[in-house]
Amino acid sequence: MRRVGLTVALIALGAAPVRAEALKARFIGNEAFEITDGKVTLLSDFPYHSGAYGYMKYRFEDVRPQGKVLCLITHKHEDHFDPTLFKKTDWTLLGPAKMVRGVDPAKLLPIQDLVRFEDMEIRPIRTPHGNMEHYSYWVRWHGLKLFFSGDTEEMDALTRIGKADVVFISPWLLESWQGLGPPNAGRVIVYHHKADEKIQCIQCVVPKQGDEIEISY
To answer: Which CATH number fits domain 3-216: 3.60.15.10, 2.60.120.620, 3.40.640.10, 3.40.50.300?
Structure first.
């Protein structure tokens, strides 16, 4: 399994930086990352239907998250969420209201301006994607500020809140973002690329399935 080093450097004027606990991220496929501090796990856009729309395949039984688990879902497309697979778990779900209909209410977190799950603070931001309900997410976890773009084609949610420590971004949004100048982020991780897709980006991480990345100060 390939390991990719990823360290985010923070500089605080007039004060020593607060040290964050390391997060370990593993790329499952599509926009699915398994990110954990060893006690809690965040699953982005997972579980999804393996191979949907010609995107990446995986084995559901190979994903065994640690501790309490939150699934952070941007929208209802099958390459992002499979409700049948989710029903097999005891995980918690945060996602668009229409998408989560029929899910056990005890396993749901409601979409609101600020959502808390264990040590995470999550800010869902409604972003356009076709004609469906879609959210991008800002997540603050152990002092790190993470952004998950989802499939949106618009950059408003990314540009209006300021610098992120780590941005998870699609290839098409990355292309638009780079057109504005150097990305305002500590590190950029590209997701939802095809396995053999060539991504033009300086100092981006373009993971292969199964790659493990450590995210820390």
So the answer is: 3.60.15.10
